Amino acid sequence: MTSVTRIDTVRLGGQDGPEVGVQGFGAMGISEFYGATDEAAARDTLDAALEAGVTLIDTADTYGLGANEEFLAPFLAAHRDEVVLATKFAIERRADDPSHRGVRNDPAYVRSAVENSLRRLGVETIDLYYMHRRDPEVPFAESVGAMAELVREGKVRFLGLSEVTGPELREAHAVHPIAALQSEWSLFSRDVERSAVGAAADLGVTVVPYSPLGRGFLTGAFADAAKDLQGGDFRAHQPRFTGENAERNAALLDPVRKIAAAHGATPAQIALAWVQQRASVHGLTVVPIPGTRKRSRLLENAAATRITLTDAELAELEPVAGLVAGDRYPDMSFTAASREV
Ligand SMILES: NC(=O)c1ccc[n+]([C@@H]2O[C@H](COP(=O)([O-])OP(=O)(O)OC[C@H]3O[C@@H](n4cnc5c(N)ncnc54)[C@H](OP(=O)(O)O)[C@@H]3O)[C@@H](O)[C@H]2O)c1
C-alpha cells in the first residue's frame, strides 16, 4: 500500500484567502475527456485527496455538461468543511453538438450559471468561482462586476479567472480582488510566464496551474500516442499528441526520466516538482491541480510536493518547453496567448 504524504498548506490570494493544500485536485477527467470513467475508483481517489491534505477540488459546469459537478455532490455533502470548492462558468456547450464551444460572460449568464452550479453541487456557497474563458466583448466591469455581486450575496466567497493575460488580470483585479488565476502551466506549456504570472505576483494572486502533467504526456505514458489514445479520448485531436509531434515530444522526456531516476521518483512527480519550484522564480504561490482517476496516482502526485530539484536539474529542464512540437490547443483562440500583443 502506498504511504500517504500529508502536504503543506498555503492561502489562496494572500492572508485573507482560504487555506488549501499546496497541491489541489482536478476533477475533470473523472467525468470525461481522458478515457473510460469509473465512479467507484473516482470516489476512492477523492477520499485519498483528503487523506493527503489535497483540499482544493476543481470542477467546472462544462465538465460532462454538469455531470462532474453532480458527481461531486455526495462527496461534498459528507465533507463540505474539509474541501475548498472551485468551479467555473463561461464555456457553453450543447448536448446535440459535441464540438460546439461558446463563451458567455454577460451578467445574466453569470447569474443563471451560478444557480445551476449551486444546485448541481448541492451546496449553498462556492468557495472559488472562476470565469473559465474571457469574452473580450464583455467589459470586466460587467462580468467581474456580476461575479462580485455573487460575493456580496454570499453565493460565492472568492473570485478567479482562467486563461487571461497579465493586463486583463490587472484590469479585472481593479473591479474586485481576484484570489486565483488558473492557467495551463507545465514543463511543456510556459506561455503563461510571458505576462500573466508577473501580474499575479504583483497583485498577490495565487496561480493554479492546470494540466501540470501536460494532460498526461509528461508522465511518459504515451510511447505511441496514436495507439495509446483510443475510445474517443479528447487528446486524440490535440496537436501535441498526434503524428510526428507526438514522436518528437516523447523524445523530450529523456531528461525528465533521468532526473526522476536520480530522485527515485516518477516523471509525473518531476513535472509537478518543476511547476511548484518554477513559481518561486517569479515570487509567487502556486497550487497545481493534477487530475487522475486513481487513488495510487493521487498519492504519488501529492508526494511530489516533497521533491526539491537542484539548480543543475532545473537548468537541464529549462529548454524543454521551447522544443515542444505543436500548440497546446487545436484552436489557440481559446487561450489567453492569442490576446497577447
Ligand atoms: N481552466 C481550464 O481551462 C482547464 C483546462 C484543462 C484542465 N483544467 C483543470 O485542470 C485539471 C488537471 O488538468 P488535466 O486533467 O487536463 O491534465 P493533467 O493533470 O496534466 O494530466 C491528467 C492526465 O495524467 C494522468 N496522470 C495523472 N497522474 C498521473 C501519474 N502520477 N502517473 C501517470 N499518469 C498520471 C491522468 O490519467 P489517469 O486518470 O489514468 O491517472 C490523466 O490522463 C483538470 O482536471 C481540470 O480540473 C482546467
Automatic annotation (TrEMBL):
MF-aspect GO terms: oxidoreductase activity
Annotated Gene3D superfamilies: NADP-dependent oxidoreductase domain
Stretches assigned to coiled coil: none
EC number of the protein: 1.1.1.-
Pfam families: Aldo_ket_red
Top-rank taxon, per record: Bacteria
Alphabetized UniProt keyword annotations: Oxidoreductase
InterPro entries listed in its UniProt record: Aldo-Keto_reductase, NAD(P)_OxRdtase_dom_sf, NADP_OxRdtase_dom
Residue ranges of domain NADP-dependent oxidoreductase in the record: 24-318
Listed name of the protein: Aldo/keto reductase
Organism: Streptomyces bikiniensis
